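Our preliminary data section would be incomplete without showing what the modeling component actually yields. Below, a chain of 278 amino acids is followed by its predicted structure, encoded as tokens that our downstream tools consume directly.
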Amino acid sequence: MEFEKRKASTLAAMNSPEPDKSPKGNVDAPIVPLLAAINSHPLYFTTSSCSGRISVFAHPSASSSTSPVKSKGGKWVFISHDPVDPDSVSRLLLGDELGQSDPGHSFVFRFEPLIIAIECKDVQAAQWLVALAISCGFRESGITSATNKRVIIAIRCSIRLEVPLGCSDRIMVSLEYLKYIAELANEKMDANRKRTDGLLDALLKEGSFGPHSCNGKLLCRSEVNSDEASACLDGPDLEFLRNSSKGGMNSSEDGESKHFDSTKCGGIPLNVTASLNL
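Predicted structure:
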């Protein structure tokens, strides 16, 4: 029951009007449907997330004086979870934000893709979701922690961008170059959104997606035609699962098709049934 208690507590905090512990203070709007889909499943809940962001980050130099902000390792000069207007953002940064920052700061322009941390009921459930995420283009996904108490996975990919811009008193890039890297960041944001939408579509196509608990066992889609599964699953859920029992093809961003096999994850065979110790 500890998993269920942690899930209830986490979801209650997410639904609270109070700001959360992230710098932004709330969940990123572009991934609300994806988080809702994951959290609707009894074997998963999200613990932290970012939909993807374009930012300029200021790093304090080792010699600069200590302040509460600097002691945390720096601050954001600019941040957006949506595509940016290259002309506007380049003029804003070179005209005001960078030049007026504290002396001794160095600046980095970044694009960071989606990342979601998810607690899973057990290792089998974790492997299933990791396999699906990888098939949708999130190839850096994996289990980050697995103990007898908690199993955590991260859904993520490597379509990122990081470009040093210079320091407070010497910005090394031109207005035209900053506009160029903003355009690159927008392209990566678009690719990130397509993968995110693809993952949500894959989850929804699974019906009541993922492995299912039935009389103390974990059932994968390959078992949904069994009498035991038929007795456990509701009609609509079983129909969805039967219709998708052959698996699916998902195209990655580079055009390479990836086949999702719910019984394998990175070459590691999964047990299609396992005790859940509910």
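The first strand starts at residue 44 and ends at 50. The chain has one domain: 2-207. Preliminary results of this kind motivate Aim 1 of the renewal.
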